[in-house]
UniProtKB/TrEMBL annotation:
Keyword line: 4Fe-4S, Iron, Iron-sulfur, Lyase, Metal-binding
GO MF assignments: 4 iron, 4 sulfur cluster binding; fumarate hydratase activity; metal ion binding
Entry coiled-coil feature ranges: none
One Pfam family hit: Fumerase_C
Keyword Phosphoprotein annotated: no
Matching InterPro entries: Fe-S_hydro-lyase_TtdA-typ_cat (IPR004646), Fe-S_hydro-lyase_TtdB-typ_cat (IPR004647), Fe-S_hydroAse_TtdB_cat_sf (IPR036660)
Protein name from the UniProt record: Fumarate hydratase
PANTHER family: L(+)-TARTRATE DEHYDRATASE SUBUNIT BETA (PTHR43351), L(+)-TARTRATE DEHYDRATASE SUBUNIT BETA-RELATED (PTHR43351:SF2)
Ranges for domain Fe-S hydro-lyase tartrate dehydratase beta-type catalytic: 134-329
Family (UniProt): Belongs to the class-I fumarase family.
Amino acid sequence: MLNPNESVEDWVLEQMPTLGAGWCPPGVLGIGLGGSPEQAMQMAKESLHQPIDIQQLKHKSTLDDYERLRLSLYERINNELNIGAQGLGGKSTVLDIKLRHAPCHAAMLPVAIVPNCAATRYMTFELDGSGAACLPVHDKSLWDDIPDTVNVGESIAVNLDTLTKEEVRSWRAGDMLLLSGKLLTARDAAHKRIANMLLHNQPLPVSLSGRAVYYVGPVDATGDEVVGPAGPTTSNRMDAYLEDFIDKAGLLISIGKAERSRQAIDVIKKTGTAYLSAVGGAAYLIAKTITRSRVVAFEDLGMEAIYEFEVRDFPATVAIDSTGDYIHRGVVPIIPMIQE
């Protein structure tokens, strides 16, 4: 909630760094301006249903105040903040700025922002009471020019089935890896359940010793898929569990997306383990590297069950190495919780 004389543009620029990398930039930023606080948030989300048109807006001969605000934010976020794709630095942070507005009380100025990640998450449809929504099936040829694999350049091949702590300690922040072998999954609900079992010295349903855990809740497979889209979830929600998973259960590496807390970095450094970053927003492409999938624990948790994947050339980047160095250092001034 801003005072009427405060700058919306400056406020948005201040907020962008606090989003971290978990929203998987580059994406579209939706802004709701005015109305009530509730209306502002709804407008921010609804604005993301509009088509991307910032390039056309650049060439428009006359602009109103809201269009000028969109253009200015687009230029300043991309050119001044150095957030970049996946939060790794650069000038491609937002693809467009969308904005909806409404009248508001003279003594207050509600503003809301909603980021939409590189894998667009929103769609619209209408329910008119005649039955279930029937959504159009898109022509798959529209994506013919998009590669079916993630290009990771020069990479280090890693066999997860024979991985040693010495090998993990040889990696350095920024190294690109291609993982093959057996990979466990676990996210929020599974972490909470395992942590409770460790607290009460109960045996785990699957050993984590020397293993890699991928923070993911895969989508159900359809057709001939081994598994549906399987993109990483934001890792810092698991930070509170990390020390016990390493010290008590023997976890060797964790895989997810975005930055981690100072607490997690210190744990990784102390234990000589590593944290790998998978590509946020590339869930479909990541799923193509999974050759086999089975539930090995907590089947009642559905997509949050623990799966064992067999992967071939699963792309990941060393985000935090065993020395405590991390890929966001000095590049992304957006993560106060890991800045020294």
